[in-house]
Amino acid sequence: MWTKESLQEKLKEKLADYQFIIASNREPYVHEHKGKKIKWVKAISGLTIAMDPVMQVVGGTWVAYGSGDADKGVVDENNRIKVPPYNPAYTLKRVWLNKEEENGYYYGYSNSALWPMAHIAYQKPVFNISDWEYYKKVNNYFAQSIMEEMKGEKSFIWLQDYHLTLCGKYIKEKFPEAIVSLFWHIPWPNPEVFRICPQRKEILEGLLSCDLLGFHLRYHCHNFLYAAEQELEAKVNWEEMSVTYQGHKTLIRAFPISVDFETINQKVSSPIADKTVEELPLQRGPYYEILALGVDRIDYTKGIIERIKAVDRFLEKNPQYQGKFLYLQIGALSRMHIKSYKRLFEDIQSLIEEINWKYRSGNWYPILFTSERLDYLTHLAYYRAADLMLVSSLHDGMNLVAKEFISAQVDLKGVLILSPFTGAARELKEAISVNPYDTETFADAIKEGIELSSEDKKTRMLSMRDLIKENNIYKWTGDFISELVKL
Ligand code: F6P
Question: Does pTM surpass 0.90?
Fold first, then answer.
């Protein structure tokens, strides 16, 4: 079983002489002005939730975009700050972008082109040439910042996600001996979809500068291998799962990402957590006996509208649950400068309003939405208190909310309803699987989840908890690094 300690041992043994540098667009800790004070918050993103505990164990440097309005005021002259603020364990090095760069690279190429292209959520990608120019420029900034941190020493560089596809190439051009890897946190599309991308060759070439490329699923690895074969006529070794291009070999591997089971489990089992769970009912919330929970960034890939429609249908078909059932949607606002995200947020609000009006009776209504930032313990307490967790992504690389929920279910009473279109569904077989596009069966699954016997709920939850306990975030990191050191 991989633990913090065994990961630390492994790194000491294998990577002691290396600078350990990771890079992602999103930073783990954000500093913001709150009145006259500067406060920090944890970023809301699957990537940072997964990587922060790893970095706390490993140490090293995390290079990321400084997105907070107070970020500049707290770093040193090299743009560095030690984090976590409450217990400094590693260095966060911030990269600065101006508004045009952020628009072109982040809102534009990363999230209006690559994100919709990678997810089958029927949102048309927009490939704008000026966004691409900013994307290249910002990838270069990241590469420069990483190279500064290498300090001319042997370095192990671990890039994260679709924002940084070109970064590895820029580094390898200057430091061919650096070990460069990238983990792709979202799905990799099939060849028919990928071939619409006008910059596909540059993206593949950028990625193939890396020594190791990780995806959540074998299926995504295969899609990538096809793309390399078809678009670059690169030499693909299907048995070894590798691509050789211009004399350089890249290993392609599946590593299903996970969460820090032990820490979540411990935090949520403490006496203070017991109290938080007891005091949970939201101050402005309605009366309820059964709590169903949704926790997402407001994103069209998450199937939030489909979920709300299923809740409506469930209440229509099962009036005995009216007055007792509450669906709480914790929704972090995300990428709001992109029209489709803004529209989605408005659509969610108006649909909730409509459904609440339809059923409202006395002090009860069925859906509560909050975009309030909750502290971590309260967040975990909701997972623990929930009777049902609704994860209905239309397409999702993994979905760590599902795994966090299971890690927090210390009372073994909750049920996970999970879309088969998430990476997590490949592992979490004891969840109730439901196609989010099929409102009728989704509604029935909510009823089934509520009415499962306590014994059945317990057995399913125990089995999923055992799995996540073993396949935790330290194993994910350990497996990735073990593969790399074989090189
Ligand atoms: O980890 C999954 C993920 O979807 C990342 O790919 C993405 O960067 C992140 O969560 C959240 O998005 P953002 O950083 O744009 O807020």
Answer: yes
